[in-house]
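Long-time lurker, first post. I've been practising inverse folding by hand and with some scripts of my own, and I keep getting stuck on stretches where the structure tokens seem ambiguous. Below is the full token string for one chain I'm working on. Before anyone asks, I'm not after the true native sequence, just a reasonable design that respects the backbone. If someone could post their per-position residues I'd love to compare against what I wrote down in my notebook.
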């Protein structure tokens, strides 16, 4: 009888251990990824728009390179030439770190991305020589990673910000201050998240005489657990007329 009880206890212990390991595997396995993009594109048209928050404690006025309601510009680092397409040039940085090891990267000194026309010498024109810029536009994006239990184990909210419709000598429609601003980041135990953004394409949707800039950006996500690494990219197309489309 004692031997039978001991054997039963061993079997039950093994079953419980196997069940616990199976539950742990289900918890650590990412089963689905959901991306939700806000449908409203215009953040506002009032003079107080620069005081609106794009993330907790971060207002439009804190960001690099955005035009104000009076036509003046916030300070901005120009960055480097990252791509050229016929008569338009993209300036900024080659890679933008957005989230690193589960923590948002709030670097307010980086050079935001701009797509501007060339001058007579083939260089990008000074943004101060352009005009007609829109007030900032913002699109909020929510990311959620769910495990095999259906629970959200990684969540990340961010805002795509830019200004559009700038012209040079009365022609063209360009983009300036294109950037991704991290907001809420939640990473549960056992997981890690890294996010970056870069320019992946540049187009002229207009003519050579009247260019309409188009920029394709890729937001890359790398979510990890001890069981698996999942790397995905969301791609967005921004135009000098103000449109933003997830591709």
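-- Answer (accepted) --
I ran through it position by position. Result:
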């Amino acid at each position: 009888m004692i031997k039978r009880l001991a054997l039963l206890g061993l079997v039950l212990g093994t079953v419980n251990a196997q069940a616990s390991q199976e539950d742990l595997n289900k918890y650590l396995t990412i089963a689905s990824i959901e991306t939700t993009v806000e449908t409203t594109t215009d953040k506002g048209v009032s003079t107080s728009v620069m005081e609106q928050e794009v993330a907790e404690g971060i207002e439009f006025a804190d960001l690099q390179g955005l035009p104000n309601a009076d036509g003046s510009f916030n300070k901005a680092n120009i960055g480097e030439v990252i791509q050229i397409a016929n008569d338009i040039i993209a300036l900024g940085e080659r890679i933008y770190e957005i989230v690193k090891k589960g923590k948002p990267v709030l670097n307010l000194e980086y050079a935001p991305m701009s797509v501007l026309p060339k001058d007579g010498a083939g260089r990008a024109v000074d943004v101060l020589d352009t005009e007609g810029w829109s007030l900032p536009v913002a699109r909020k994006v929510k990311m959620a990673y769910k495990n095999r239990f259906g629970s959200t184990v990684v969540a990340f909210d961010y805002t795509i910000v830019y200004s559009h419709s700038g012209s040079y000598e009365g022609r063209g429609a360009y983009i300036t201050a294109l950037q991704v601003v991290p907001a809420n980041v939640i990473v549960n135990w056992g997981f890690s998240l890294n996010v970056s953004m870069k320019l992946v394409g540049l187009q002229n949707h207009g003519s050579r005489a009247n260019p309409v800039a188009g920029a394709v950006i890729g937001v890359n996500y790398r979510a990890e657990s001890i069981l698996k690494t999942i790397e995905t990219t969301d791609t967005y197309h921004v135009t000098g007329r103000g449109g933003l489309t997830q591709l």
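A couple of notes from the structure itself: The chain has one helix and 15 strands. The radius of gyration is 24 Å. Happy to go over any region you disagree with.
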